[in-house]
Amino acid sequence: MRQLLDAARKRGGVLRATVLIDAGFSRLSIAAAVESGQLTVPRRGWIATTDADPYLVAAARAGVVLTCVTQAKRLGLWVWEEDRPHVGVPSTASRLALPSVKVHWNAPVVPRASGQLEDGILNTLVTVAACQPYEAALATWESGLNGGLVTKEELGRLPLRPRARRVLADAMPFSDSGLETLVVVRLKWLRLPIRVQIWIAGHRVDFLIGDRLVLQVDGGHHVGLQRAEDVAHDAALTLLGYHVIRVTYVQVVERWHEVQDLVQRAVAQGLHTSGR
Questions:
Q1: Which of 257, 235, 244, 243 lies closest to 216 in space, CA to CA?
Q2: Domain encompassing residue 35
Q3: Where is the DUF559 domain (predicted)?
Q4: For residue 48, what are the contacts with CB-CB under 8 A and spacing of at least 6?
């Protein structure tokens, strides 16, 4: 029995019963494991270990594939928002009644193998481009490029639709986070150089706009010792002639107009140039 369970876990914990049968296990041993409660049956023809990933169990039960922002999060990519689970089904499949779930009926660019419960990086990114707003999709794509999960060359060889082509054309593999992508995209209209994560006065700054305007974005960890270090660094930057604007993550994501107003006013005063 232990060998059977180990074999199931090595194959992801949720799989078609025929996979184990092809591996040499008998239908009788699988049935015995189910009867004893050591395996479950999420759907006819499928089995799952009791400690299997709940998302995979749910996907097997519904006959769908995890994709789009749901799978992007599972792959460790930056995702702006996941309002509900996103799943994919073949474009020829019958309609599904899955309340509170976003179902994608588009044909995958990479064929899905029988028994596959998760999309790979390519199908995931292409579905994100079709589903999400431009900025959010770009941030997720750049996260994948930066993490080395995919290259622009590989993506460029796919039969992409116009929305995905636009994201691919604008995507850069150097952004460490979706937040960086959002800021750069939203300030592109300024037509000023924007450098990301560069070292000044012994510390990294989030963004350097022009020559002298520093934009720092604080997350929830900017408290205590971190906050004291930030204040000291801001003082050092000021003494070197830089102008520092410090905002919060929430402002960037939810109240962008406040951030843009601060940057606009600083640029209007020439605080981004070395001549001031």
A1: 244
A2: 2-53
A3: 192-266
A4: 8, 13, 14, 15, 39, 40, 41, 42, 56, 57, 60
pLDDT tens digits for 194-237?
998 899 988 889 999 999 999 998 875 555 566 778 888 989 99
Same domain, 151 and 196: no
Model pTM above 0.85: no
CB 223 within 8 A of CB 255: no
Going by their DSSP bridges, the two strands 102-104 and 86-88 should be labelled as: parallel
Contacts of 145 (CB under 8 A, 6+ apart): 151, 152, 171, 172, 173
Count of domains for the chain: 3
Strands in the chain per DSSP E: 14-16, 39-40, 46-49, 65-66, 86-88, 102-104, 194-200, 203-209, 213-218, 243-248
Name the residue with higher pLDDT: 106 or 101.
101
**Is residue 228 domain-shared with residue 258, that is, in the same domain?**
yes
Q: Alpha helices, DSSP H only, in 132-223?
A: 134-146, 152-156, 162-170, 178-187
Do 158 and 250 fall within a single domain? Answer: no
Q: Within this chain, do residues 157 and 117 fall inside the same structural domain, yes or no?
A: yes
Report the share of the chain in percent with pLDDT over 90.
70
